[in-house]
Write a structure and sequence with these properties.
Layout lengths: L2 H21 L9 E5 L2 E5 L1 H20 L2
């Protein structure tokens, strides 16, 4: 795989990720846990992490398949 092909794939992934982050509000999904007590806020993005993991797994699978 040439460096040009890798850069094109990386650019495409960044373009899609930027588009999704612009129009889809991640971080406030059902399943994300936020605890507030006084001036302290603790946030556990469980569902957001699961979705990001699945999406990255699909992307890396596709990159490996076409390689």
């Amino acid at each position: 795989m040439t460096i040009g092909k890798v850069l094109m794939i990386a650019g495409g992934v960044l373009l899609v990720a930027g588009f999704l982050l612009q129009f889809i509000k991640l971080g406030r999904l059902p399943g994300d846990i936020m605890m507030k007590k006084g001036n302290t806020t603790v946030y556990f993005p469980i569902m957001t992490s699961l979705i990001a993991s699945v999406l990255l797994s699909i992307v890396f699978y596709l990159i490996g398949k076409f390689r």
